[in-house]
Amino acid sequence: RREYVDLYLNYVFNKSIRKPFEDFQRGFLRGCPTRRWKIFLPAELQIVLEGHTKFDWHLLEKDVTYDCCNKTDRIIRNFWAVFHKLPEEKKKMFLAFLLGSDRIPGYGLEPFTFTIVAINYKNPDEVFLYANTCSHILFLPR
């Protein structure tokens, strides 16, 4: 029985996925042709490729830059007050809106910054906030 279980497990976890894994590996190495991937442990490589999944939201707030406003403006204080009351899932949705991904890039939160630009409109109630995902800019109507 032990031999059967060992052979079965070997088939399920190794032989049955060998071809799909080799195809994936070939495609991955074609897109990322470097031998340096081997320096990473699997968990580290996952962070580099997918980004961080755990966040310090107060650190994120600390590193924001402001344009046409400053962190003491009422609109900014209100924004962060509402943001910090959001559940974790909604905060991740905000990241997805701002970055195009619900994860912080693999280099971490400390060097990561985004900009909030407060914009004056004649009727701000008729304007939605929007983001430039490439430049990490949030345009916030006053």
UniProtKB/TrEMBL annotation:
<feature type="domain" description="HECT">
    <location>
        <begin position="1"/>
        <end position="142"/>
    </location>
</feature>
<keyword id="KW-0833">Ubl conjugation pathway</keyword>
<keyword id="KW-0436">Ligase</keyword>
<protein>
    <submittedName>
        <fullName>HERC3 ligase</fullName>
    </submittedName>
</protein>
<dbReference type="GO" id="GO:0061630">
    <property type="term" value="F:ubiquitin protein ligase activity"/>
</dbReference>
<dbReference type="InterPro" id="IPR051709">
    <property type="entry name" value="Ub-ligase/GTPase-reg"/>
</dbReference>
<dbReference type="GO" id="GO:0016874">
    <property type="term" value="F:ligase activity"/>
</dbReference>
<dbReference type="GO" id="GO:0016567">
    <property type="term" value="P:protein ubiquitination"/>
</dbReference>
<dbReference type="InterPro" id="IPR000569">
    <property type="entry name" value="HECT_dom"/>
</dbReference>
<dbReference type="GO" id="GO:0005737">
    <property type="term" value="C:cytoplasm"/>
</dbReference>
<keyword id="KW-0808">Transferase</keyword>
<dbReference type="Pfam" id="PF00632">
    <property type="entry name" value="HECT"/>
</dbReference>
<dbReference type="GO" id="GO:0006511">
    <property type="term" value="P:ubiquitin-dependent protein catabolic process"/>
</dbReference>
<feature type="active site" description="Glycyl thioester intermediate">
    <location>
        <position position="134"/>
    </location>
</feature>
<dbReference type="InterPro" id="IPR035983">
    <property type="entry name" value="Hect_E3_ubiquitin_ligase"/>
</dbReference>
<keyword id="KW-0677">Repeat</keyword>
